[in-house]
Amino acid sequence: MLSGFEALDPLTLALILVAGFAAGWVDAVVGGGGLIQLPALLAVPGIAPVQALATNKMGSVFGTTTSAVTYARRIRPDLRTAIPMALVALAGAFGGAAVATVLPGRVFKPIILAAIIAVALFTAFRPQMGQYTQLRLKGRRHLAAACGLGLAIGFYDGLIGPGTGSFLVIALVSGMGYAFLEASAKAKIVNMATNIGAIVLFAVFAPGGTLLWGLGLALGAANMCGGYLGARMAVARGNTFIRWVFLAVVAALAVKLGIDVWNENFA
């Protein structure tokens, strides 16, 4: 088990920080930065999986907070929807983490894989989807739907984790009718809440040494830089740019989940 930040050689540390920067950029645009950052941490010699998971969340919370603030300052998303959705997602994440202790995430992965492939195909063949915000619901029904989605995706984050930000964008665009830019802004606020919840869980319930504080803070700095750049680029380039990055990240997520399903059931 890795004992701390000082145990890493300079090349390994540099590669992790590059992965953290790239993850922060991807996460700021469409979510899914954990697909880059978590495998980089798992490749570190001597690191335990629980250490990698906890340190990944610790680094990510800096990136999601930075990109959430950047979006909030530049496009001013509707916080009347985003904040209740974030709070409900936080509760969902706690519930998902509790279920994960008794029911393994692999039970749900085939269903999630099928759903994400269906949404990716739907998005690919509907080029106008997500170009403009055309909300499907109004008032209390809109808020109730947002909170329901937040609860479900927060539960997924606590149970399985990878791709939570991308699932939030999927739900907000295809389920609620937001444009990609507005959806990405709201997704960052919600994802920030679930990341903070995960950090609290690891800090309170995990054994000592699970959170690698030095590495997590360094990773957080790299994530912040990537998150700031990604959010600014997304705002500058708009919905079409986000749509293409979204499709690329969702394809990567589908491949990752597909490999997991194969290894867990057939390998």
Automatic annotation (TrEMBL):
Its main location: membrane. It is found in: Cell membrane. Coiled coil: none annotated. Keywords: Cell membrane, Membrane, Transmembrane, Transmembrane helix, Transport. Pfam families: TauE. The chain crosses the membrane at residues 12-36, 82-101, 107-127, 162-181, 241-259. One of its GO terms (cellular component) is plasma membrane. It is a multi-pass membrane protein. Belongs to the 4-toluene sulfonate uptake permease (TSUP) (TC 2.A.102) family. This is Probable membrane transporter protein. It comes from Sinomonas puerhi.
